[in-house]
């Protein structure tokens, strides 16, 4: 039971970090001048956000199986 609570907490944390990262990437892409550095940073934030969300889904699926 305690292990499940820890997994749920990690899942929530990963999901929140992923969503915040995606929102930051979206805002950066809307407001920033598209130069090489900002384009690379923007894509990195999008990829990082999706990886955190994928990890949250993966943890959740492992906990239910």
General description of the model:
With 65 residues, this protein is mostly helical. The protein contains two helices and no strands.
Which features would summarize this protein structure in a list?
single chain, 65 residues, mainly alpha, 2 helices, 91% helix
Which secondary structure elements does this structure contain, and how are they paired or packed?
Elements: H1 2-31, H2 36-64
Produce a short descriptive summary.
Helix content is 91%, strand content 0%. The chain has helices at residues 2-31, 36-64.
Cα-atom Rg, whole angstroms?
15 Å
Helix content: over 70%
Largest sheet: number of strands, sense, barrel closure: none
Low-confidence stretches: none
- Put simply, the count of helices is 2
- Strand residue content: under 5%
Mean pLDDT: 91
- Note the overall shape: elongated
Please provide the ordered H/E string of secondary-structure elements: HH
Intertermini distance: 14 Å
Secondary structure category: mainly alpha
Number of strands: 0
